[in-house]
Amino acid sequence: MKLMKQWQRCCCLVSSLLILNLCPTVSFAATYQLTILHTNDHHGHFLKFNPYPVMDVGGLAAQSTLVNIVRAEVEEQGGHVLLLSAGDVNTGIPESDLLDAEPDFKLMSTIGYDAMTLGNHEFDKPREVLLKQQEWATFPFLAANIVKKDSGETLVEPYIIKEFDGLKVAILGLTTEETPILTFPEYTADLKFTSVIETAKALVPKLREEADIVIALTHLGFSEDSGGGYKSPGDLKLAKEVPGIDVIVGGHSHTELKEAQIVNKTLIVQAGEWSQNVGRLDLKIDTDAPEKITESAYRLIPVNMKKRVKYHDKTYYMFVDKGYIEDQEMLDAITPYAEQAGKLLDQPVGEAVNVLDGLKEKVRFEETNLANLVTDAMRAKTGAEIALQNGGGIRADIAPGPVTYKDILTIQPFGNTLVVLDMTGQQIMDTLAYAATVEPGNGAFLQVSGLKWTNNKGVAENVMVGDKPLDLQKTYKVVTNNFMAAGGDGYKMLKDLPQVNTGFVDADAVKEYIQKAGKVDPKVEGRLTIIK
């Protein structure tokens, strides 16, 4: 009897195997846990930094610890982790800029990034630099819509497909069409930045056939269209017009999305800037379900960000989230780069003929020659007609004689970036009306380039742009810093205007301006007349 039962069980097993072999369409449902970690608009911040008033934020050594802690947690649960960058690794911090971002790309490789899309700032330097960066990186650069004019081939890989225990994940790179406008024309002259929407429409259906889920890794901005007078599509438009994208991991607009946005069933995420946060998107995926992503959860993880707590007359700081001890292996790798950059910072970039006035006792009370140099440099860097700079953003004098990069970073220590806005004459007038009410000595005291105006007992008047009166109906291209553009120092009227953060650091613009001139001797020109 026992032998008979064993024989019957064997027959059933053989029959089942025969049925499966004869029916190749029979499959088993596969479910996966996939965690996408991501950063964007890193801008050279491989070192921890001090966003006033807090200290020791970010840095790739702390990020390495954070990422590996998440990996340990996810992998223990049987899941998989994908680490992505949405571009603009370049341009921002002198220690990185002076070394062509070598420390950033090599340290990101050590952390284990899986892919990066090209941002517009990857074209701030000659092509040879980008080629070096590709060699330093152990992860692929992606951009499906950047095409060589002579051959029609894409400059880098358009997409990759990664596999995790049978789960196939397509990652499609897309870069903003306005890149040739935002960077030096000669560095993109041989390239064509094709339509983001049309490129995605052509590739997404193909990727849906080859992969279980499709991720668009974009440097487009979280918008319908980009601001600053440009109309290239952003992530919202991409999600609305191109079906079949499961997730958009975005960059370019430096947007902190604390929750994933859902547009036409597409999840959109973005993690701010400067690697201050790592975005974490947890997905549950059923490859047999009509909607393959069955569950999702999203959060931003601050990288040692801190907040201020006041008690009586004392100020204390605490971590916004958890604190992460810096990875010692990464710190050891960082040290030689920091030392090398330090030597370069001490090299002269030009010469000041006279003292450049930047002390708060002057720059917050009146027009100064250093403020004029700074605002002129802002216009030269961006091609703007008008520059607006808060006096509080200029922090020191520069003595006559050789000017080093360290000197420039002393006068502009905040790492502010230049933001270009479209402003009507009336909006400029509204801004000056507020500036006229600012008490001298306040950091909001306004310094300008490209216009002259009178503050007549708290009233703005006699505004001239070049040699013509301000036209209230005309639209002007205006540059300011990202602090003011966000409404800082009371300039709330700027906050909601169309604007593009160029990513260019204010100190870098001054450095380039002085380097080009060789010797600088700016004057007080009567840009501001004050009637008390």
TrEMBL record:
Residues 361-496 form the 5'-Nucleotidase C-terminal domain. One of its GO terms (molecular function) is 5'-nucleotidase activity. The keyword Nucleotide-binding applies. Residues 34-255 form the Calcineurin-like phosphoesterase domain. It holds the Pfam family 5_nucleotid_C. Residues 1-29 form the signal peptide. It comes from Candidatus Moduliflexus flocculans. The keyword Nucleotide-binding applies. PANTHER family: 5'-NUCLEOTIDASE, 5'-NUCLEOTIDASE-RELATED. GO terms for biological process: nucleotide catabolic process. Keywords: Hydrolase, Nucleotide-binding, Signal. This is 5'-Nucleotidase domain protein. Belongs to the 5'-nucleotidase family. PROSITE patterns: 5_NUCLEOTIDASE_1 (PS00785), 5_NUCLEOTIDASE_2 (PS00786).
